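Need residues for this backbone.
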């Protein structure tokens, strides 16, 4: 632990990773959040990178919950959170046989198809606003819980269900904050059970934690000043960036 915290390359990668993930947790979701583990994986093994970042995500969730308090859609949470718990359970049970690379590739393809469908609708000026649908919400919630557990990639499945609802940006962001705060808190139990936390990783997490609130509040400040006509195209653009990143990581992980 002492060695890592005295290595300039580790400190640089860790600070950049926490800043990007914090901005994402503040409301930007998607692309920047997925860069956290890969950036930290430049200097430590991917499993250790994920274990270091998870406690920091909890700190960010607490800050985000305070910043977006009162802004959430109860119906979205009611239909998606039960599915998320199922997905986390499946991820826990299959942790020894499911590879992160395959999950990233599948999620990336789904996200890319979702983005392309939106682009076609936008070009044809027939973009639709979806209504809540319990079976669909449970399905995408379970996918989000599973992919969040296995590959910290729960954002795209959540967006597949939530973005077409066309909620007010503050409501959309606040709801996603609550959803992933619950998901990350629940993930702590199986992560401990699988031995992904130890004194070294937790101490490093504690050392990096002070950066988390500042980065998160910066994301909150920007989102609260963004109009819907800017917010939604930006979110879909991030879905596209995320899909390409996930497909790249999946293909690289499977075929080298």
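Answer:
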């Amino acid at each position: 632990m002492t060695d890592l915290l005295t290595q300039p390359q580790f400190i640089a990668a860790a600070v950049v990773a926490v800043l990007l993930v914090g901005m994402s947790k503040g409301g930007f979701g998607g692309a920047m959040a997925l860069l956290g583990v890969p950036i930290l994986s430049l200097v430590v093994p991917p499993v250790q990178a994920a274990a270091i970042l998870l406690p920091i995500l909890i700190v960010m969730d607490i800050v985000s919950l305070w910043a977006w308090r009162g802004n959430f859609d109860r119906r979205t949470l009611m239909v998606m959170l039960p599915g998320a718990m199922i997905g986390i359970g499946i991820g826990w049970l299959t942790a020894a046989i499911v590879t992160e690379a395959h999950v990233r590739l599948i999620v990336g393809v789904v996200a890319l198809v979702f983005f392309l469908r939106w682009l076609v609708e936008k070009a044809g000026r027939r973009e639709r606003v979806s209504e809540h649908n319990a079976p669909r919400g449970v399905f995408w919630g379970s996918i989000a819980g599973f992919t969040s557990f296995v590959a910290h990639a729960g954002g795209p499945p959540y967006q597949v269900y939530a973005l077409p609802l066309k909620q007010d940006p503050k409501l959309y962001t606040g709801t996603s904050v609550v959803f992933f705060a619950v998901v990350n808190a629940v993930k702590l139990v199986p992560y401990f059970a699988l031995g992904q936390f130890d004194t070294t990783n937790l101490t490093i997490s504690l050392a990096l934690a002070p950066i988390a609130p500042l980065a998160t509040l910066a994301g909150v400040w920007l989102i609260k000043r963004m109009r819907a006509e800017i917010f939604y195209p930006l979110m879909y653009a991030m879905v596209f960036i995320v899909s390409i990143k996930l497909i790249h990581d999946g293909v690289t992980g499977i075929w080298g």
